[in-house]
Specification:
700 residues; alpha+beta; Herpes Virus-1; Jelly Rolls; 9-stranded antiparallel sheet; 6-stranded antiparallel sheet; 23 strands; 15% strand; rod-shaped; zinc ion binding; zinc; innate immunity
Length: 700
C-alpha cells in the first residue's frame, strides 16, 4: 500500500511539472496555447506581452502580430483534476500557493526575478554556476561558505533557461564573433575551437555602438526627409499661387483677343452698313430722279390727251406739244453691289482668319508659337488691327508643309545672273548666246516667278532689297533666272535631233515678249474638263464640267482626300508632263479669280493649299483691282491686263508656262518656270459669287 501511494505521489509530481506555467511556476490557471505549441496562464502571457515583443517566453519564437489566444479546455480540465487529486493527497490546496504568488507578482514589475529557493522573495543575485537566483537569505551560503566562492554571482537574471547551452547544459559565457552566437566553455573548446570570441558584455557594447550609429544615421535621414517634405509643401503652395497667376494672365490675354475680335466685328459691320447706306442713297437718288421723269412725262401725256379731245380743227392744228428731254433717257436700274473693295476685304479677312485659327488650333500646343513667329505668317494682332493687308492675298497661309513627292535636281534659288548683260537688240530678237546659257549645261532652272523687264510701260515688280533688313508688308520676289536665260530656253526648247514636223516641238516662238498670232498657239490646243473630285464645296460645276462658279450654300460633295477643303479651288482632269499644251479661259470679271498650274502633291486640306502659296503651284491672280503672280508664297505685282480672255501655253520640255491676254493677237504678260518632269494640272481659284470661269473648247 505504501509502495502504491509512493508511486502515485511520483506520478503526480511528474504530472505537476508538465502542468506548471513556465512564467509563474505554478499550475496553469486558464491555460492558453501559443501557435508554437507551448502553454501558459492567460494572465501571465498577457503581462509578459504588455511591454515586450510578441515572443514565446519559452522558445522565443517571434510573432509579427498578437496571436488570437483561446482557453485550452482539455488542459484546463486536466489541471483541475490534478489540483483536486493533489489537495486530497497533500492536504494543502495548491491554488493558495499561486494566489500568494499572484499577490506577490501583482505588486512587482514583470521583470522582477524571484528567488528560486523560496519562490516568494525577490532575488538579489543570480549564480551562473548554479544557474539559479537567490534572495538575500538564500544567497548567504555563496557569500559565507568558501566552497561557493568560485561561483559567478551576477545581478538577478530572469532568462536563465535561455542562457543554458542546449548541448552541454552549461552557462553560455562566451560569444562567437564568427558565427554570431553565444556559446559555453565546452562549445569554445570543441565546436568553436579557433573562432574569434568575446564576452557577451563586450559584444553588447559593440552592438550598442553600432545601433547608436544607425540611430544617428536614421535621425539624419529623417531630418532631411522632413526638410524635403517641408520644401515640397512650400513648392506646392508656390505652384498653386503661380497657377492662379498664370490663369489670371491668360484670362486677361484671351479677354484682349475677344475685345480685338469684337472691335473688328464692329468695324466690319459698320463697313457693311456704310456700303449699304451708300447703295441705298444711290438707289434713292435714282428713284427720285425716275419719279420726277415720270411726272414730267405724265404732264406731257395729259397735254397730249387734252389736245386730242379738242373738237376745233384749227386750234388742234395750231397746238404743239414738245416731249420732255427725259424721254431720251433710258430708264435702267443702277448697278449696285455690296462687294466693294472694303466689304470684300473684310469678308475675306473673316473667312481667312477663321480658317487660319481652325488649322492653328488643330496643331499641337507646343508648335503653335513657332507658327506665329514673324517670318512664318503675319502676326494675328497685326491682322486684327485693320491694316490694308487683308485686302490683298496671301494671308493666313501658314508654314509650308514639306514636299513629300519626288524633288527636282534644284536644291535652292540660283543667284541672279552676274555677267555683263548685253544691250537689248529690239523686240523679238534673241540675246547673244553665252556658253554658260546653253541648254544641257549647268544646273536645272529654279522654279519661281519671273517677269520680263520692260514688258509693259510702267510695269511694277517687287525686287529684292539691297540691304539685309527684312522688307515690310508683302514679301519680295525671290531671285531667279535672268530674262536672257528665259528667252534662250524658249528659243532652244526644240531638241536638234527631233523632227520639226512634230507639232509638239515645232513652231517655237521667237520671244515671249512679242505678241503672237493666236493661230500659232491653237495648234497646241487641248480640250480640258474640270475634276469634280477636286472641287471645293462652294464651287458649282456645269454639267459638261467646263464652267465653275461660286455658290452661297456649300454643295454636299463627298469628303475625299483629293478635294480642296479650305480654299475654293479646282483642278482639271488632265495633267501635262511632256510636250506643249495650250488652253484658254474666259472670266466673267477680272476680280477674285486665279488661274495657274499645280502639281498633284499640292496640299488639299491646310491653309497653304492656296494656289501660289506653296512650292507645288503657280498662279496669276486678279484680286481687288490688282493683278499679281504668286509662287512659294511670294508675290510679284504685274501691270494690269484689260481682258477677260486668258490663254496659257505650258511647255513641259522647257519647264515654262506663259500667260497671254487673248484678243486679235495673243500678248504675253507673264511666264513661270517650273521643274522638269513633274506633271502639272491647270488649276483655278474663285472667291466671289460674282466671278466664274469657263474653259474654251479649242481645236488645234
Amino acid at each position: 500500500m505504501a509502495d502504491f501511494e509512493s508511486s502515485d505521489l511520483q506520478c503526480l509530481s511528474d504530472l505537476g511539472e508538465e502542468l506548471t506555467c513556465s512564467i509563474c511556476l505554478c499550475p496553469f490557471q486558464c491555460p492558453v496555447t501559443t501557435p508554437c505549441g507551448h502553454n501558459f496562464c492567460q494572465d501571465c502571457l498577457d503581462k509578459s506581452w504588455a511591454d515586450q515583443l510578441y515572443n514565446c517566453p519559452q522558445c522565443r519564437t517571434h510573432f509579427t502580430t498578437r496571436p488570437d489566444l483561446r482557453k485550452n479546455t482539455v488542459l484546463n480540465t486536466v489541471v483541475e483534476t490534478y489540483i483536486t487529486r493533489s489537495s486530497m493527497m497533500y492536504g494543502a490546496p495548491l491554488r493558495k500557493q499561486k494566489t500568494a504568488l499572484e499577490v506577490s507578482t501583482a505588486t512587482a514589475d514583470t521583470s522582477t526575478v524571484m528567488c528560486d529557493s523560496c519562490v516568494e522573495r525577490e532575488a538579489v543575485n543570480t549564480c551562473l554556476t548554479c544557474m539559479a537566483s537567490f534572495c538575500a537569505e538564500h544567497v548567504r551560503p555563496h557569500l559565507d561558505n568558501p566552497t561557493y566562492r568560485a561561483h559567478q554571482l551576477k545581478a538577478p537574471l530572469g532568462d536563465l533557461a535561455e542562457r543554458m547551452c542546449p548541448d552541454h547544459h552549461k552557462a553560455m559565457e562566451f560569444f562567437c564573433v564568427q558565427h554570431s552566437r553565444t556559446i559555453c566553455s565546452t562549445c569554445l573548446q570543441q565546436v568553436h575551437k579557433g573562432c574569434r570570441f568575446s564576452t557577451p558584455e563586450e559584444q553588447k557594447g559593440l552592438k550598442e555602438s553600432d545601433l547608436k550609429s544607425k540611430l544617428v544615421t536614421l535621425d539624419s535621414k529623417i531630418e532631411k526627409t522632413e526638410t524635403a517634405l517641408s520644401q515640397i509643401a512650400e513648392t506646392l503652395d508656390k505652384l498653386k499661387v503661380s497657377a492662379s497667376s498664370k490663369k489670371k494672365m491668360l484670362e486677361a490675354e484671351y479677354q484682349q483677343i475677344r475685345d480685338l475680335l469684337a472691335n473688328e466685328e464692329c468695324v466690319a459691320m459698320n463697313m457693311v452698313d456704310r456700303q449699304l447706306q451708300s447703295e441705298e442713297t444711290k438707289l434713292n437718288k435714282t428713284t427720285k430722279r425716275f419719279s420726277q421723269n415720270i411726272q414730267q412725262m405724265d404732264s406731257a401725256k395729259q397735254d397730249i390727251c387734252s389736245f386730242l379731245s379738242q373738237s376745233d380743227t384749227l386750234s388742234f392744228l395750231q397746238a404743239s406739244v414738245d416731249l420732255p428731254s427725259v424721254v431720251n433717257v433710258d430708264s435702267y436700274p443702277p448697278r449696285v453691289t455690296l462687294d466693294s473693295k472694303n466689304v470684300s476685304g473684310v469678308e475675306r479677312f473673316a473667312g481667312d482668319l477663321k480658317d487660319y485659327l481652325g488649322d492653328l488650333f488643330k496643331q499641337p500646343v507646343e508648335t503653335r508659337s513657332a507658327t506665329l513667329k514673324p517670318g512664318a505668317v503675319p502676326m494675328v494682332q497685326n491682322l486684327l488691327q485693320g491694316h490694308d493687308q487683308y485686302f490683298g492675298g496671301g494671308l493666313f497661309q501658314g508654314p509650308r508643309p514639306p514636299y513629300q513627292g519626288p524633288r527636282p535636281p534644284y536644291q535652292g534659288p540660283r543667284p541672279p545672273y552676274q555677267g555683263q548683260r548685253p544691250p537689248f537688240q529690239g523686240r523679238g530678237q534673241p540675246f547673244p548666246l553665252d556658253s554658260r546659257m546653253h541648254r544641257g549645261q549647268g544646273p536645272s532652272p529654279a522654279p519661281g516667278i519671273f517677269q520680263a523687264p520692260g514688258l509693259f510701260p510702267g510695269h511694277k515688280s517687287h525686287q529684292p532689297q539691297a540691304n539685309t533688313q527684312k522688307p515690310k508688308g508683302r514679301s519680295r520676289m525671290k531671285a531667279g533666272r535672268s530674262m536672257e536665260n528665259l528667252l534662250l530656253d524658249t528659243n532652244l526648247s526644240k531638241p536638234e535631233n527631233k523632227s520639226t514636223k512634230n507639232p509638239e516641238t515645232s513652231g517655237i516662238l521667237p520671244s515671249i515678249t512679242s505678241p503672237v498670232n493666236r493661230e500659232d498657239l491653237l495648234k497646241y490646243g487641248r480640250v480640258l474638263t474640270l475634276n469634280l473630285n477636286t472641287a471645293h464645296r462652294r464651287l458649282k460645276l456645269s454639267e459638261d464640267l467646263t464652267e465653275a462658279s461660286v455658290m452661297d450654300t456649300p454643295a454636299n460633295y463627298p469628303d475625299i482626300p483629293t478635294r480642296f477643303s479650305v480654299c475654293s479651288q479646282v483642278l482639271t482632269t488632265t495633267g501635262f508632263s511632256k510636250g506643249r499644251h495650250y488652253f484658254e479661259v474666259k472670266m466673267s470679271s477680272s476680280n477674285y479669280v486665279g488661274i495657274g498650274l499645280a502639281q498633284s502633291t499640292i496640299d488639299r486640306k491646310g491653309p497653304s493649299s492656296r494656289l501660289g502659296r506653296n512650292d507645288q503651284s503657280w498662279c496669276v491672280e486678279w484680286f481687288t483691282l490688282k493683278l499679281s503672280a504668286w509662287h512659294a508664297n511670294v508675290e510679284a505685282v504685274l501691270e494690269g491686263v484689260d481682258t477677260k480672255h486668258i490663254g496659257v501655253l505650258v511647255d513641259c520640255d522647257g519647264g515654262t508656262a506663259t500667260f497671254y491676254a487673248v484678243a486679235d493677237m495673243a500678248n504675253p504678260f507673264h511666264t513661270f518656270v517650273f521643274p522638269l518632269g513633274e506633271k502639272v494640272y491647270p488649276a483655278f481659284w474663285l472667291f466671289s459669287n460674282t466671278s466664274s470661269i469657263a474653259l474654251c473648247k479649242l481645236s488645234g
